Amino acid sequence: MIVRRDVFQAIADPTRRRIISRIAGGAMNLNAVADSFDMSRQAVANHIKILTECGLVTIRQQGRERFCEAKLDQLAEVTDWVEESKKLWAGRFNALDNFLAEIQAKPAENGNQ
C-alpha cells in the first residue's frame, strides 16, 4: 500500500515543524539535525523521510555526508489555504456581528414603542 503524503501532513507534527525551522536557515547534515532533538536518530530519520516525501526537504549527498535542505516553496499551498480560510471566517464573523447587532437593536426598538 502506497501512502500519499502532502504538505499538511508534514506540518501537522510539531517535530517536523521544528526540523523545517532548523534547516530553513541553511543545509545541515543529517547527524546535526538528529543531534538537535531528544529522540533516536531513527525517529528523526523517519520525520525527515516524511518531509522528503512531501517535498519540503531534499537530501543532498556531499562526499560521505548527507545534507538536508529546506524547500519552503511547497509551503505556498498552506499559505493559500490559510488565506482562503481567513476570508471564509472573516465573512462568517461579519455575518455574526451583523446578526448580533440586529438582535441587540430589537429590544431597544420594542422598548421605544
UniProtKB/TrEMBL annotation:
SUPFAM superfamilies hit by this protein: Winged helix' DNA-binding domain (SSF46785)
Pfam families: HTH_20
Organism domain of life: Bacteria
Domain HTH arsR-type, first and last residues per copy: 1-90
CDD domains named in the record: HTH_ARSR (cd00090)
One example GO MF annotation: DNA-binding transcription factor activity
Protein name as it appears in the record: Transcriptional regulator
Lineage: Bacteria, Pseudomonadati, Bacteroidota, Sphingobacteriia, Sphingobacteriales
